[in-house]
Specification:
This protein has one helix and four strands; from the N terminus they run βββαβ. It is mainly beta. The chain has a single domain, classed as Alpha-Beta Plaits (2-Layer Sandwich). The longest helix is centred in the last third of the chain and has 5 residues.
Length: 56
C-alpha cells in the first residue's frame, strides 16, 4: 500500500526532496499521490514527527 501523510505533518519539507518519484506535494499538510508512491519509505525515514505511514 502507498504511504499517506497523517495530520501530524508539520509541513517542514524534509520529506519532499527524499521522494525518488516526486509523489509528495506541499501544502498545510503535505500529500502523497498514491498512484506515484512506490512504497520505498524514504519519506518516513526522514520525517521528524513520523507523519508518513503505510496506508491500511
Amino acid at each position: 500500500m502507498a504511504y499517506k501523510i497523517s495530520e501530524d505533518c508539520i509541513a517542514c519539507g524534509v520529506c519532499q526532496p527524499e521522494c525518488p518519484v516526486e509523489a509528495i506535494s506541499e501544502g498545510d499538510i503535505y500529500v502523497i499521490d498514491p498512484d506515484l508512491c512506490t512504497e520505498c519509505g524514504a519519506c518516513a525515514d526522514v520525517c521528524p514527527v513520523d507523519a508518513p505511514q503505510p496506508e491500511e
